[in-house]
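User: Here's a chain of 173 residues. Predict its fold as tokens.
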Amino acid sequence: MAADDITEEHIALMKDVLIQHVPHARALGMNVVNAKRGEGWLSVPYREDLIGNPQTGVIHGGVITSLLDNACGIAVQLALPERMSIATLDLRIDYMKPATPKLDLMAHTHCYKVTTNIAFVRGTAYHTDENDPIATCVGTFMLAANRAMPMPITPEVAEEAAKFLKKNKEDQA
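Assistant: Prediction complete.
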């Protein structure tokens, strides 16, 4: 399937799949808020068990790192012409300020360059305004990082993935 054959409907069906296969992302409560070709918007709801400093109520910096890493990975996956395994090679995060207690975290990432072996991404973690960042990041991801089965993107497989997610939600209820 050519990259231009991916529709918004396909991406919408894939949004949950991109988080559901990462147990740590699920444990943090990450959600794909929006996605499009080469970009991802993720959130982590504020929870007391994610606090790094009980005296201030600020979410731990590791949660922000995980959010940005996962959002970057999703942006890379959505920039590729076909699904393949990827691995984070380098992720630099610059923390601008502490997160505000009781506010959800958001991240927006953009894969701006894909070569034969490497994808390049940048992103921002914030609360409500991307122009007021908590942290920014730049990252590189290795393409075809292992021999894991690639994640297909055909409409049939996207539909099958949606059924799988629905069944998992029913099983958890």
